[in-house]
Design a protein that fits this description.
Elements (H helix, E strand, L loop, with lengths): L1 H41 L21 E8 L2 E11 L2 H13 L5 E2 L6 E8 L2 H11 L14 E7 L2 E8 H29 L8 H16 L8 H25 L3 H21 L5
Antiparallel strand pairs: 1-6, 2-4, 2-5, 3-4
Helix pairs in contact: 3-4, 4-5, 4-6, 4-7, 5-6, 6-7
């Protein structure tokens, strides 16, 4: 009787042990299936993120903010070829000058339409430019006439811009880079006309402006930032062309001088007049 009872106890003990092990194995299998295998099965090939977890480009948090943009004042010297009552006559004269190997552009009327062949930040450089250009302008400027060097003041401009945080921040950075590039580019032409050692790094400037243009092209302005964005993008695009031409001029290509300074005249005209609309 005692042996029967002991056998029965051993049987029950074995059964309990079996049940405990069964529960452990089932639980372990559940956890392995839920967490380990599921993660392996859901992981896309070549390390790509699971759908719904794609990385996103930094666009800010979508909040609206206001930034203040300020440009530096400039004192410039313009070399004037002539002044005309109609834009058509002014543009024809500018083209005649370009055909003779002299850079030229028409600036906004005041009220006359004036044709300029150069813009510098040094009066000495402007006078040297005028001296070199005058002999080439036979038939456009009278033999006894001189090219007129006039001072041009561009006041500092400060305006506020309100919009999506990433948009206004990019526009603010763009105006800062453009402002510095314009001053440096005109400084290059001062050194060029005065035949001084060139200290302006045009290649670095071109890279900076190209990055600005690409950044501006990659954002979508709203109605409140569209005007500032459009002006900054237009200036960056024109600057990139002007800097490329200046690099050619520095390398000895005379066509680079014509295209480069003609572009500078256009840039200064837009910079001086269109900034006023943002104030």
């Amino acid at each position: 009787m005692r042996r029967t009872r002991m056998a029965r106890n051993r049987t029950l003990s074995g059964l309990v042990t079996f049940l405990i092990l069964a529960v452990v194995f089932v639980g372990s299998g559940y956890l392995i299936g839920k967490y380990l295998l599921a993660s392996l099965l859901q992981r896309p090939p070549e390390g790509q993120p699971v759908s719904g977890d794609e990385p996103k480009l930094p666009t800010g948090d979508g909040s609206t903010t206001t930034v203040q943009i300020s440009t530096k004042p400039l004192t410039l010297y313009r070399v004037q070829i002539g002044a005309f009552s109609t834009k058509e006559r002014a543009e024809n004269t500018a083209q005649m000058a370009i055909d003779k190997g002299v850079p030229a552009g028409v600036m906004s009327p005041d009220p006359l339409h004036k044709v300029y062949c150069g813009v510098t930040s040094s009066k000495e450089a402007a006078q040297k430019l005028a001296q070199d250009a005058l002999p080439k302008l036979s038939g456009i400027v009278g033999e006894d006439d001189n090219l007129y060097v006039a001072t041009m003041e561009i006041d500092s401009c400060t305006f506020s811009l309100t919009g999506s945080e990433n948009v206004v921040t990019e526009i603010q950075k763009a105006f800062s880079t453009i402002d510095n590039a314009i001053a440096s580019l005109i400084g290059f032409w001062d050194q060029y006309y005065l035949e001084q050692q060139i200290t302006v790094n045009l290649s670095s400037m071109k890279s900076d402006i190209a990055a600005v243009r690409a950044s501006l092209a990659g954002i979508s302005p709203d109605s409140g930032t569209q005007t500032a964005h459009g002006l900054a993008l237009a200036l960056a695009t024109e600057l990139e062309t002007a800097i490329s031409a200046a690099i050619e001029a520095q390398g000895g290509d005379s066509s680079g001088e014509i295209e480069g300074m003609t572009s500078v005249i256009k840039i200064i005209d837009a910079y001086a007049n269109e900034l006023k609309a943002l104030q």
